[in-house]
Design a protein that fits this description.
The protein has 341 residues and is an alpha/beta fold. It is built from eleven helices and 15 strands. The longest helix has 18 residues, at 311-328. One of its GO terms (biological process) is response to antibiotic.
Length: 341
């Protein structure tokens, strides 16, 4: 049996703006999302902010009702049988919410074990197992307010596993976590998948998704734009070269000049503190060094390197292609419409 089946999921939000002449605004956050997740699979859901990742997750774990479409978790419909779905799932979200800081980790887990209706005779053994799994044994009697961000995230995972869920949703669990703690979290997630737990992971860290996920879906504009293994997604940009340029002062003007160069498929700038990293994707074999540097005339430049494409490059290409398709569609239905209230 499949762990998750989603078919044509849609979620529309309606809000009112204005006072004298109020308008009702309708926004489609998720537009017909469909995918399946096998039992025991580690499935990644990637996308930019506002793409519909969290909305999709919340529909699957019964926190939001779909406007249309259907979803099942181990055969249980998320709308018609939400109680049965909740018994089969755990939900872990990034950030500091969801824990009681004035309590110890042990008391937090005891409290949530009662909420999850874990049998009293099993609670002590189950909590001890989870504290060892997430590496918090020996620190469980300390107050959570003294925990680091990584320790809190590991406690979140322990909380989500108390009732032995068949599916664990991890919504950006490593956000704001330092590299060492993030590595420990990845190891914990991998161990869960190896033990047979179905994991659905959302993240903005491509290296994390590449390392962990069996398959990945990329969502943009509320729609699934690509679905496959990390290797299959990377193959989409295998016939490209990637040029990276460290710079200071790259504006939209210079970026547009680079994008207009023959052979350039995409170009983006990532701000990294006081330095910018310009990444240029081009058709394989295109000689770009001199032309890119000429297009950046007047910009302070640093290191210039060429490398093989990564999952992040494939992700950027997929999202950019989706944005171009959306911008170029003439007469298509808009994501937001306004009508008189």
């Amino acid at each position: 049996m499949l762990a998750i089946e989603a078919h044509g999921l849609r979620r529309t939000y309606t809000s009112r703006t204005g006072w004298l002449r109020p308008r009702r605004t309708t926004t489609e956050a998720v537009r017909g999302v469909s995918f399946e997740v096998a039992s025991g699979e580690l499935f990644g859901l990637l996308g930019p902010n506002g793409a519909g990742k969290t909305t999709t997750i919340k529909m699957l774990n019964t926190l939001l009702l779909p406007t249309s479409g259907t979803a099942r978790v181990f055969g249980h419909d998320v709308v018609r049988d939400p109680v049965a779905v909740r018994r089969r799932i755990g939900y872990v979200f990034g950030g500091d919410r969801g824990l009681y800081e004035r309590l110890s980790a042990l008391d937090n887990l005891r409290y949530f074990a009662e909420l999850y209706e874990v049998e009293p005779c099993e609670q002590r053994r189950r909590i001890a197992e989870l504290l060892e799994l997430v590496g918090l044994d020996g620190r469980e009697r300390e107050r959570v307010e003294g925990y680091s961000r990584g320790m809190r995230q590991r406690l979140h995972i322990a909380r989500g596993l108390l009732h032995r869920p068949d599916v664990l949703f991890l919504d950006e669990p490593s956000i704001g976590v330092d590299p060492v703690a993030a590595r420990d979290l990845r190891r914990t997630v991998a161990d869960l998948a190896d033990a047979g737990t179905t994991v659905v992971l959302t993240t903005h860290y491509m290296a994390e998704a590449d390392e962990l996920c069996d398959r990945i879906a990329v969502i943009a504009g509320g729609e699934i734009r690509a679905l496959g293994t990390p290797g299959a997604l990377k193959a989409r940009v295998q016939e490209r070269d990637v040029l990276e340029v460290e710079a200071r002062g790259v504006s939209e003007t210079e970026l547009d000049r680079v994008r207009a160069l023959p052979g350039v498929r995409d170009a983006a700038v990532d701000d990294r503190g006081s330095v910018q990293l310009l990444t240029v994707q081009s058709d394989r074999g295109t000689e770009l060094h001199a032309r890119v540097l000429a297009a950046l005339d007047g910009v302070r430049l640093g290191r210039v390197t060429t490398r093989e494409p990564t999952l992040e490059d494939a992700y950027v290409a997929i999202v950019a292609e989706a944005e171009r398709a959306t911008a170029g569609s003439v007469g298509s239905a808009a994501a937001s419409t306004e009508v008189p209230a």
